[in-house]
Design brief:
By secondary structure, this protein is α/β, with parallel strands linked by helices. The protein is built from four helices and four strands. It has a four-stranded mixed beta sheet, with helices on one face.
Length: 126
């Protein structure tokens, strides 16, 4: 991983039996969100690498072999393109042969899922 990864918070969600990597995107949201989405995409790929390459296990040994959730919390009334982008990103990753191969042979993560905070019942803040 050549980029500097930015994960805003890492917690253990015992109710869902997952370690959670939170990626927080605050507003305000500019008219053209393309650059912002590109940066978010990089952050999400970094979060995947942190989980699958064992960096999470290095800092949190209890996470080894557990489920990992990457949760994107969106604040400041993001435009519709942002949650739509997250859904497309998730579908792309889950259908990607390289990702599926990494997951199948992975010794650090049992299962990985990508969600938004609103999908987890978290309300966006203004």
């Amino acid at each position: 991983m050549n980029r500097k990864a930015t994960i805003d918070l890492i917690t253990e969600d015992s109710a869902n039996h997952e370690f959670v990597l939170y990626v927080v995107e605050d507003g305000p949201w500019p008219e053209g969100v393309r650059e912002r989405l590109e940066r978010l995409q990089e952050r999400l790929y970094d979060a995947i690498d942190i989980a699958l390459d064992g960096h999470l296990v290095t800092k949190f040994p209890r996470s080894k072999g557990m489920n990992v959730r990457i949760q994107i919390d969106l604040h400041g009334q993001p435009p519709r393109e942002v949650p739509d982008f997250v859904m497309r990103f998730r579908e792309h990753v889950l259908n990607d042969a390289v990702f599926r191969g990494r997951m199948k042979q992975n010794r650090y993560v049992h299962h990985l899922r990508i969600v938004t905070g609103s999908e987890m019942g978290r309300k966006s803040s203004s």
